[in-house]
Specification:
Blueprint (H helix, E strand, L loop, with lengths): L6 H6 L3 E7 L2 E7 L5 H8 L18 E4 L2 E4 L12 E3 L1 H6 L4 H9 L9 H14 L5 H7 L11 H17 L4
Parallel strand pairs: 1-5
Antiparallel strand pairs: 1-2, 3-4, 3-5
């Protein structure tokens, strides 16, 4: 007798059905209880705009909106999001919600390699939905959880600031 409980082997291969509304579509997928939300989005649903960067919640590459709030999908198990509404960069882009931010990022060359851009846009969108005209310091503070290796941040801050001013001049959001 080895002392090993063979019943544990069955638990290792066990999957759980997770039901989500992703980018406005009802979906269900089978995940292992230990699968992260970013892995579910990328591997099961093939939504590869959400990136797995540091896998510690420090870089912001994995940001998605869960029930309207930005969350680090690398720090959540997919089962924790069961029943939730997820908006990824693909869904927010398709809806046109980010069109002005995307255009300004492009115009100001605030996206260079693009790896961090989806998380930056999700974070910027959340900031502008809560604060119509944030100060440059507030923008920098909001971006403090996003890591970019390419741009030096100034172009990103400039882009978000320009969009905030343009939206305010138009009297609202995008």
């Amino acid at each position: 007798m080895s002392g090993f409980d063979d019943s544990l082997l069955n638990e290792v291969d066990e999957t759980v059905r997770v039901r989500l509304i992703v980018n406005g579509r009802k979906v269900a997928c089978e995940v292992a209880p230990r699968d992260t939300l970013v892995d579910c989005l990328r591997d099961k649903l093939e939504l590869t705009g959400t990136h797995a960067g540091c896998e510690m919640g420090a870089c912001g590459a994995c940001l998605v909106q869960l029930d309207g709030r930005a969350v680090h999908s690398c720090l959540m198990f997919a089962v924790q999001a069961d029943g939730g509404r997820i908006d990824t960069i693909e869904g927010l882009s398709e809806s046109g919600l980010l069109a002005d931010l995307q255009a300004e990022f492009h115009r100001r060359n605030a996206l260079q390699c693009g790896f961090c851009t989806p998380g930056m846009l999700i974070n910027a969108n959340e900031l502008l939905s809560q604060t119509a005209q944030p100060s440059r310091d507030e923008i920098r503070d909001a971006l403090s959880g996003n890591y970019c290796r390419c741009t030096g941040y100034e172009a990103i801050v400039d882009a978000i600031d320009a969009v905030a001013k343009a939206r305010s001049a138009r009297g609202g959001a995008a």
